[in-house]
Specification:
There is one protein chain. The protein is of the alpha+beta class. The strands form two sheets. A five-stranded antiparallel beta sheet has the order 1-2-3-4-5, with helices on one face. A three-stranded antiparallel beta sheet has the order 6-7-8. It is built from two helices and eight strands, in the order H-E-E-E-E-E-E-E-E-H. The protein has one domain.
């Protein structure tokens, strides 16, 4: 009893306390690492969405989308975009946008969109969805529509005649049409979806305000 050294019980208690602290720190690090990885996955998906949207939207604005036709074969959608203005230094006025979407195959979820190379020729560029497979407890599960990988969960498109417009100056009938495309990207870690959303007028007529226009509308 007079020994000033540590007893076996004291050593055991110290070991248990140290072990508990180490385990807690380890779990904290794992949780932090998992949250950081999930944040990166979400950022990758949003970056992908923004890149694809900007590519298509830039062409629509600069080259004036004239018409769109679409064909579908199962999970694949093929859009032919025709533009009023040829792409710079080329006579090219069309581009293909192909969307591959599969709820069963992770590798069959990608977009192919035409680009113009340095020789002024079209070449197909493939844009794969980020690899964001989910294996943790936060994965969405419980129904047949859920998946453990990021995918295109739905594709909605519309090529629509809104109404016909008679130009008050020229008395010309201009059909006002629009094209819309909504590609939903479903991630297993998120309840909500990200969307590649394109909405654009078709064969939009450039209108310059003139004195005659102002006179007409002021009356």
């Amino acid at each position: 009893m007079g020994n000033k050294g540590m007893t076996l019980i004291e050593l055991l208690i110290g070991f248990l306390v140290t072990s508990a602290i180490v385990v807690s720190m380890f779990n904290f690090i794992l949780d932090f690492s998992g949250d950081e990885q999930n944040l990166k996955k979400k950022t990758d998906i949003r970056t992908y969405k923004n890149i694809v949207t900007k590519l298509i939207q830039t062409d629509i604005i600069k080259n004036e989308l004239k018409s769109v036709s679409v064909s579908s074969n199962g999970n694949n959608y093929d859009f032919l975009l025709t533009f009023n203005t040829p792409f710079e230094n080329t006579g090219i006025t069309t581009k293909n946008l192909i969307v591959h979407a599969s709820s069963n195959n992770k590798d069959d979820n990608f977009i192919v969109y035409d680009d113009i190379n340095n020789l002024g020729q079209k070449q197909k560029v493939r844009y794969d969805l980020p690899n964001t497979s989910c294996t943790g407890s936060k994965c969405r599960a419980g129904s047949s529509t859920d998946s453990d990988f990021t995918r295109f969960s739905s594709i909605g498109t519309n090529i629509h005649d809104v109404y016909n417009t008679i130009d008050p100056i020229t008395q010309t009938n201009y059909g006002v049409n629009y094209f819309s495309l909504d590609i939903a990207i479903s991630s297993p870690e998120e309840v909500g979806d990200n969307h590649i959303l394109i909405v654009a007028p078709l064969n939009y007529r450039y209108c310059k305000i003139t004195d005659k226009d102002e006179e007409y509308y002021s009356n």
